Amino acid sequence: MPNLIVSPKEKPDAKGNVLEITPESANWSYVGFQVFKLQAGECLRNETGDQEVCLVLISGKADISTVKETWNGIGLRMDIFEKTPPYSVYIPNDDYYEITALTNLELAVCKAPGQGNHKARLIPPSEVGVEVRGYGNIERLVHNILPENEAADSLLVVEVFTPDGHWSSYPPHKHDRDALPEESLLEETYYYHMKPEQGFAVQRVYTDDGDLDETMIVRDGQAVLVPQGYHPVAAPPGYEVYYLNVMAGPMRYWRFHNDPAHAWIMSKPIDKE
């Protein structure tokens, strides 16, 4: 039985890291992911090495600098469930980032192989694509932070708010075949928060042949690995569910395939009552 859930550390390490996923720990090739929690006044500095990075300010404010750029006082969302788009920063490989927390800060570091094709840049909330996806109890709010039509070498980054009692990443879809233009091969991580935080989400990860078929209870602050297969999410009544997705693969396209058994749901008439 694979262990697809990654739990946070009991307390931050010396650099403020509370969760880490590497290609080695996930047993895959492209996606890396970290979460840091810094107190006001604390600093963090890391080299990007051969990875491009997207820093997502999940909550809090900070000053951020790279080799050539500096952004002071960025950050707007003090609570994730304000549901305003976040500030983010794209940084290429062979660079560094230095962060000074101006308030308590929760920071996601999304990583994938870089080829040095793009400059460091700020992604303000005004440049985040906002959409409501689905209908009825599969409706959810999506923030497209780093979609494929925005410059990057490998990374795709999006966050989703699923209302209580709703389903998300639904109908079940997958992107585990390098078969463009029909489907792209993308590894994916889900990083979760719940409101109230004692809540949980239900996530299933399964393949057509049944070799992988896991149904998981996911808690606040945990992450889920999706190496292959379909991966729907459910938010139980009374609990809103947030997740941040990071995707990367050999080609930077998001082309997915719905589970044929459930694809009919997208053609269901919307109840107008």
UniProtKB/TrEMBL annotation:
One of its GO terms (biological process) is inositol catabolic process. GO terms for molecular function: 5-deoxy-D-glucuronate isomerase activity; glucuronate isomerase activity. It holds the Pfam family KduI. InterPro entries: Deoxy-glucuronate_isom_IolB (IPR024203), KduI/IolB_isomerase (IPR021120), RmlC-like_jellyroll (IPR014710), RmlC_Cupin_sf (IPR011051). Its EC number is 5.3.1.30. The keyword rRNA-binding does not apply. Keywords: Isomerase. The keyword Translocase does not apply. This is 5-deoxy-glucuronate isomerase. The lineage of its organism: Bacteria, Bacillati, Bacillota, Bacilli, Bacillales. The gene is iolB.
